[in-house]
Amino acid sequence: MSTAKGNPPSPDPAAVEEMARDATAWCAMHGLVVGDRAEQRSGTVPGVGLVHAPISLLPARLPESFWSQACELAPIFNELVDRVSLDGDFLQDSLSKTRQVDDFTSRLLEIHRKMMDINKEENIRLGLHRSDYMLDSETNSLLQIEMNTISVSFPGLCSLVTKLHRVLINQYGNLLCLDSKRIPENVASQQFAEALSRAWDEFNVDSAVVMMIVQPEERNMYDQYWIVKYLKESHGVTTIRKTLSEVEAESQVLPDGTLVVDGRTVAVVYFRAGYTPNDYPSEAEWSARLLMEQSSAVKCPSISYHLVGTKKIQQELAKPNVLERFLENKEEIAKLRQCFAGLWSLDDEEIVKSAIETPDLFVLKPQREGGGNNIYGLDVRETLIRLQKEGGDALSAYILMQRIFPKASLANLVRGGVSHEALTISELGIYGAYLRNKDKVVMNDQCGYLMRTKVSSSDEGGVAAGFAVLDSLYLT
Ligand code: ADP
Ligand code: MG
Ligand code: MG
């Protein structure tokens, strides 16, 4: 029968079926689960209506050199985010045209401006990031898709997919001609919990808690609960979960800056919501965001870190001589630049013209997160022509990016207990944790990885958005 993602022979359909059963049973028994859309309460009541997470049956293959390259980039990107975050004028100026046409970015910038006006200093700075890459088949190079600085998902579940794939390969190894040791270790959830606990240590108030900001309905809550678990069990730190509207109703900032929510002092605010306009349905949520920013709690991310993760800033950083403003080490700068794909602002008339002529070579991106927002193919042409007609600054809401074409390979994707084989492409995410207290860098680490695999005909990539499945990687 067919091959599993490239090389070795994949087992016959009966064996695939058996493996898929073993895999989904393992998921249920080890917490590799998400809320089931079919059960109405699955996004609000833990332990109700669970289904195994969408997964790939076997890991995606990746040459070891690209893996090393991606890992090596993590601490450099962590440092870069921190440096850029300190340049408030750069953030404000780079996003000044975007704010005219994008209300969400404008609200974030308004909070950022207020913090600049009062000279707000964030001495303890915690970043939990994920830099995403695809392997471009034309150039055989690893290119960055984007840098995420807020609410990065799947540190909990990705560690489990790695474990699952090792178990399956150990069990069916002879059949598959695979060696489980070729799957790199992945303990992202423990490392994120450690970073949060060390930020809590730096804050240095024994009775304080970590506050996780969550959406009112969250089917990916078990991914979050893995971090809650490690914070408590490995570090003795308590986590409370609050929505932005609960924060607005239950919190105050004391004169010394202490953030108190529902009677508890908050050491670290860990955002797993707040990255999309949908999370701010009323003024209450914006006022909660501002209040937290004004407090002395460690924000993960701070408003500055959040803005550094916008697609507009990614594009500005890719311009000539901009990285040099923030980093000194020439080798590190070269390493970053090597993974930058083509990125353009829509001020550039030439590139807009090219994108209208050959839209398949570009992706048009607004300033949004969470998947499902980008524009591809003929829609790029249509949208650009429409925006040009609208005139004014309408184009400034977007950036253009070179489209990356990864090589497709066959894989078995398992969803809702059903396995099907498809031509797929994969996206590698490398987690990073950065913690700093004034001049002391407490942590600057690569923290495991997320592999996401999707059918090659799908443009978008989000797992939660329903496009991709969780995967791990197999070094070749
Ligand atoms: P988001 O912040 O919403 O995740 P991304 O920039 O990561 O936005 O884009 C979402 C998905 O679209 C990615 O996971 C990837 O699958 C696809 N994508 C984004 N940029 C490119 C690109 N330049 N080439 C090919 N696919 C892309
Ligand atoms: Mg993304
Ligand atoms: Mg993103």
TrEMBL record:
GO terms for cellular component: chloroplast; cytosol. It is found in: Plastid, Chloroplast. Mg(2+) binds at E146, N148, E369. One of its GO terms (molecular function) is ATP binding. Its cofactor is Mg(2+). Its EC number is 6.3.2.3. Substrate binds at residues 130, 150-153, 218-220, 224, 272-275, 463-464. This is Glutathione synthetase. The gene is LOC100840147.
